[in-house]
Amino acid sequence: MDDDFPAGMVWLVGAGPGDPELLTRKAERLIRRASVILYDALVGPGILDFAAPGARLEHVGKRSGRHSRDQRTIDRMIVEAALAGERVVRLKGGDPAIFARAGEELGAARAAGIAVRICPGVTAASAAAASLGTSLTLRGLARRLTLVTAHARAGEALTLNWSELADPDATLAIYMGKVVAAQVAENLILAGLNPDTPVAMVENASLPDERVVRTRLDLLGLVADAALGSGPALLLIGSALADSGAAVGARCQVMVAARPPK
Ligand code: SAH
Question: Is there a domain that residue 83 lies in?
Answer without folding.
Answer: yes
